[in-house]
Amino acid sequence: xxxxxxxxxxxxxxxxxxxxxxxxxxxxxxxxxxxxxxxxxxxxxxxxxxxxxxxxxxxxxxxxxxxxxxxxxxxxxxxxxxxxxxxxxxxxxxxxxxxxxxxxxxxxxxxxxxxxxxxxxxxxxxxxxxxxxxxxxxxxxxxxxxxxxxxxxxxxxxxxxxxxxxxxxxxxxxxxxxxxxxxxxxxxxxxxxxxxxxxxxxxxxxxxxxxxxxxxxxxxxxxxxxxxxxxxxxxxxxxxxxxxxxxxxxxxxxxxxxxxxxxxxxxxxxxxxxxxxxxxxxxxxxxxxxxxxxxxxxxxxxxxxxxxxxxxxxxxxxxxxxxxxxxxxxxxxxxxxxxxxxxxxx
Length: 346
Description:
TIM Barrel, 346 residues, globular, alpha/beta
C-alpha cells in the first residue's frame, strides 16, 4: 500500500477503509468524458485510441472534471479494450457502432494465437499517463485505475462488437467451454499484470468493471465471470484497495462482499437496503444513482442525493452513479450531484 498522508483530500480512501467520515466521498463513472464541452473539443481533434494512447491528452481529460465538477477522486481516462489490443486482438472504435473487432475470437485456434503481453511494452503509454496525471493532480485527490472484467472483455472479443444479448459470446462459452476458459484465464493473467503495473505507477485504487455480468444466469456468472474476478481481487487486494462493479449482478453481492474487495459498486436497480443485506452489511458500497436522473431539475437532484445517502448511511459508502454518466447531462447538473454530497450533513 502506498502512503496516502500527502493527499489533501483522502475522504475516498477513508471510506474504502470503512473509517468514520463527516460526509461520504463522491465521484462519477465516466466523469472524464463525453458530457464535458471541453472534452468534446478534444474529441473533435483526435480519434478515440489516440486520446487513450497520448499521455498528455489522457492527463488533460482525467483532470478536467476535477477542475470543473469537483469530485473527491479522479479516474484515469482510458478504455477497458486496450487490454485486448495488448493481447494482439485488433480493436477499432467506429462512429455510430462503438467497439469493433474485425476478427472476432470464435475457435480454439483463435484462442491459441492470443498472447499474454509484456505490459510495459504494449501498455506503457497508460503508465506514462498515470505518472503525468499524478504529477498534475499534485496530491489534490486520489487517482483510480481500472480494467474490464475478463467476462466483459470476452464478450467484445467473441461478439466482435457491442450487443444487448452477446448471444455469440454466450454460445462460444456454452459450446466450447474449454476454449472459453482458456481465453478467460489469459485475460485474467494479463489484467492482473496490468493492474499491478498501474498500482506501481501511482494509482491509489483500482476498479473492475463487469459491465455485462448481468446477462448471465447466477450459476453461469459463477462459472464464467466471478471465478476470474475473484482471482484478480485476491492478487491485488494487498497492493491497493479494489472496487468491484457488476452491472445487473445483484445476485453476486454476497460473494463480492466476502471476496477481499474494499468496496462493491451497485447499479440503480438494487436498493440500498437490499445491497447492504445481500453484501453482508460490512463492506463499503458505491452507487447507485440512475444516470438519467441527472436530467431532473437541480433541486430534485440534490434532494434525491441526500435521500440516497440517508438510505445507504454516510459511512462505508461512496456516492456514485449506477452506471456511467450520459453524454446529454448538462455540466451544471453533474456539478449539482457532486455539490449535494459536499453540502450533506447528518
